[in-house]
Structure formats: structure tokens, C-alpha cells
Amino acid sequence: MHFAIAGNIGAGKTTLTELLSKHYKWEAHYEDASDNPYLDDFYANMERWSFNLQVFFLNSRFRQVLDIRQSKKDFIQDRTIYEDAYIFAPNLHAMGLMSSRDFSNYRSLFELMESFIQPPDLLIYLRSSIANLVNQIQKRGREYENSISIEYLNRLNQCYEDWIDTYDKGKLLIIDVDKLDFVQNEEDLGDIIQRIDTSIHGLF
């Protein structure tokens, strides 16, 4: 089984991945954000480094998916390759922060990679308000995220909603994280696990 958790910056993907990995005793694959050599440069100058950043993430996620499918183990993945291709890169292009030439090159590379992979058996989308995202980003205090604007988060949220509205690659579970505290409240985490279990049974 391969589950993937999708959501905007600060939605709680990494934390939920960790908690679910412990509960199900499955392997966890985390986003290589801290290992991305372009991240600090990108937030300082998005237009200059957007293509480099997105290609790094695309390559990293492609390798993750191949590893997951080849391992034959059960995995929970923090963020998907589809978010790079359908959320972040198109948004950068729309904002004029990635040139049409670079975006076309990026899309061509993604389409080639997509032909070699399978989508997750279950996609868990963490839906969040901007206020909640900002609060969580401030709490974790990552220096490179200090320059993220409300406008940027708003645009990403809209891209996520548009993508989820048309998602047809497999089973989808939407969780409104504004109404839950799955870190401090065991009942909230239990509710999420129960909904996932119900979805799992629907996969067989």
C-alpha cells in the first residue's frame, strides 16, 4: 500500500506522516526540503531559482515513488510528485517567476516521469485556511520560510483546491485541519485513522 499526504505549506503533512507511520508501522518518506540546495536562494530570489528548485523536487519525488513501488513495502509519503507539477510549478509560471521556456521544459520532464510511475493508493489532502497555515509556519520558525507572503499562500491554496476538484488518479480523502488538532488531541487523530481505515477497506 502507498498512501500520500498532500497539502499547502504548513498544513501538517510531515507531522501526520510521522504519526500515521507509527500507528500503521509503515515506512515513511519525507520531503527533502532541508536537503534542497536551492531553497534559501529560491526564497531570496524566486524568479532566478524557481526552475532549479522545482527540478530538484521533481527528481527527488520521482526517485521516492520508484523506491516505494520497488520495495514492496507499505509506505506513507509526505507530499506527492503531482503537487510539484500541478501546484507549485504552474503557480510560479502564472506569477511570472518561471519563464514559459523553463515551464515547458519542466512539464515535458514531468510527463516523461509520470509515464513510469503509479499514483498512490490513497491520497490524503489536508485542507487548511490561510490563517492556520500562517500560524503553523510561524510556530515551526524555519528561517527560509520567513519571506513567504500571504498572496503566495493564497495562490497555492487556490491551486490545491482546483487540483483536488479534478483529482481522478485514485482514492481521495479530504481532511479539514482547521477543525482538528491531531498532535495534541488523540480523539482527533483517532478520527483521521478511522476515516483512513474506512477508505482502506474500500480499496479491496
Structure description:
Helix 3 (46-71) packs antiparallel against helix 4 (81-94) and helix 3 (46-71) runs parallel beside helix 5. This protein has a 5-stranded parallel β-sheet with strand order 2-3-1-4-5, with helices on both faces. It has 204 residues and is α/β, with parallel strands linked by helices. The N and C termini lie close together (11 Å). It contains 8 helices and 5 strands.
Quickly describe the structure:
The protein has 204 residues and is α/β, with parallel strands linked by helices. The chain has helices at residues 13-24, 39-44, 46-71, 81-94, 100-114, 130-140, 150-165, 186-201, and strands at residues 2-7, 27-29, 75-78, 122-127, 171-176. Helices cover 57% and strands 12% of the residues.
Query: If strands are numbered along the chain, what order do they take across the biggest sheet?
Result: 2-3-1-4-5
DSSP E strands, number: 5
Tell me roughly what share of residues is in helical segments: 55-70%
Name the beta content range.
5-15%
Order of helices and strands: EHEHHEHHEHHEH
Stretches where pLDDT falls below 50 for ≥5 residues? none
Rg over alpha carbons: 17 Å
Largest sheet descriptor = 5 strands, parallel
Key traits:
5 strands; 12% strand; 204 residues; 5-stranded parallel beta sheet; alpha/beta
